[in-house]
Amino acid sequence: MTWLPDLSLRITTFPDDRALAKKLAADIAAGLRENPRLVLGLPTGRTPIRLYRELAALCARGEADFSQATTFNLDEFVGIEASHPGSYRTFMEQHLFGKVNLAPERIHFLNGAAPDLDAECRRYEAEITSAGGIHLQILGIGTNGHIGFNEPARELVARTHRVALKAETRRNNAALFGGDPERVPHEALSMGMVTILHARRIILIATGKSKARCIDRTVTGPLTPKLPASFLQLHRHVDLLLDQAAAEKLSS
Ligand code: GLP
Predict the structure, then answer these.
(1) I need a surface site. Which of 73, 74, 235, 241 has the fewest CB within 10 A?
(2) Which residues line the pocket of ligand 1, CB cutoff 6 A?
(3) pLDDT for 11-39, tens place per residue?
(4) Which fold has domain 28-208+222-251?
């Protein structure tokens, strides 16, 4: 475990992604015991798969109770139905929603097939507000420093919005579309930077060597829209949970 007092982000390193997932799952279960009506913000991607597996195991053993919890996912592809095999909704059903006792009416998702996408983004913001805001936002990070689908750009967008995906991001999401980056939608809907930064607490998880550079820039670099995750430095309660490989470029 490393604590860097001169940095605004609190960093904890784990020997491997399994240890990381176990600790975070146990902390979320404890959070649910403390506040059964916890409002969680959730990511997709390869990184949280182990976390979701651990949460499902805790729930099966009666050690995590999601029955009164609320969830909001960060993002969704545009132009595909929720039931599409490549959708983030399908991913979440497979890895978490189908395996824990969340009430379906308290699972919130952006609909990338909505006829009016701007109205859909406004609806999502209003739902987050009426849930009382997000207590704990879990984040992954893209290799280019994106969070949710807030891609590197000249300017970042504050609230939930429609976004054009970078080629690198489409390549990294190809596994959901039979390995073919060409089949990955060109656009997505995503919570904005302010939506994310308004969560009371944020925990970003990163594992593997491919994340080492963007993690180092997130922690030690300037705030820049070229690396959206760098804006997490503005928040008072952000934890970065890393495995050894993702932490390898950080100087202690
Ligand atoms: C996607 C998601 C992000 C996620 C990122 C990293 O682009 N929109 O929310 O953090 O992928 O994915 P992985 O965990 O597979 O590296």
Answers:
(1) 235
(2) 43-47, 74-75, 140-142, 148-149, 169, 172-173
(3) 999 999 999 999 999 999 999 999 999 99
(4) Rossmann fold (3.40.50)
